[in-house]
Amino acid sequence: MAPSLINWGEGEARAWGERTHVARHDLDGLDIFARKGIARIIDAMPRSAVHAYTMGDDPCDGATWRRGDVADLTGLQLLDIVDQGRLWLNIVGAGHHVPELGAIVDELYGEVSSTVGDAWSTLKATLLVSSPSAQVFYHADNQPNALWHIRGEKKVFVYPRREPYVSVRQLDSIAAGYADEQLPYDPAWDASAEVIDLKPGEVAWWPQNSPHRVVNAPGEPSVSLSVEHRTTASTRTERRQRADFHLRRTFGLTPPPGKWLDPVTLVAGSALAKVAPKQRARNERAVSFVVDPEAEGGVKSLA
User: Of 197, 215, 230, which residue is a domain's last?
Assistant: First the structure.
């Protein structure tokens, strides 16, 4: 019998999905997450699933978040550039494309399910490999996820799920695909944030839709596994948000904040959401650079 990847108790079970929390895990001891293992994962992925980004230093300037092309660079070449540059690699669907990793994710979430009593309709694993001091700007994810940290250190700021940090309309627009997950940010809000200093062998999670941002520590690249875990409850929340968006957009109806619509209106809103053209606002960033080992920071801007 394989050793457990987690050893959680009642505290983790009570906190899962309900509040911001940090727990322990043993993923960082697996060979697949050593440098050569990560390089092999990258090499096994279709190029279209290895998303490269770069960004500026100012946490208020989300416009500096730029999409790049990794071209035909190998996994080891990309890791070398990440070490010295300012890159953030999202290796999307890694659990699907790499069976060994997919089996680990399934085993891990089987253990989580046994502990917290939750069940998943889908799991989506994205391997995150990023440079020292790189950051992800203030945003809110549509579905709940957990950040399983493996290498380096990073600081995670988690903000309340209410105005002024995020509005109901913003969350509805994100769920409907009409708005990017990135949100306006005010540094003064840090006073209300829960701050997590995430270290290897730790996993952090927070309630669905909670705004957050991430800043890597200097000195060492960062590796994390982000797993989106869709549940019946989280899907119901998403459908309600999409219904609210389309009812507001089509008929001007505004449901009370935090309240469910009556069943008839909710069905009508859900029907509108199904027939409305699906937007992809959050995925529309054009490629503006090529990852290049000869360029400063590994970023060669396109004309």
Answer: 230
- What are the C-alpha distances in Å from 82 to residues 46, 64, 163, 219, 243? 19, 18, 36, 12, 41
- Would you say 59 and 216 are in contact if contact means Cβ atoms under 8 Å apart? no
| 24 and 91 belong to one structural domain | yes
Give the three-class secondary structure for 288.
Answer: strand
Q: What is the pLDDT of residue 136?
A: 99
Q: Same domain for 124 and 135? A: yes
Radius of gyration of the chain (CA): 20
Average pLDDT, the chain: 91
pTM: 0.91
- 289, containing H or E segment: strand 287-291
Q: Based on the structure, what is the number of domains in the chain?
A: 2
According to DSSP, the β-strands at 66-69 and 287-291 are parallel
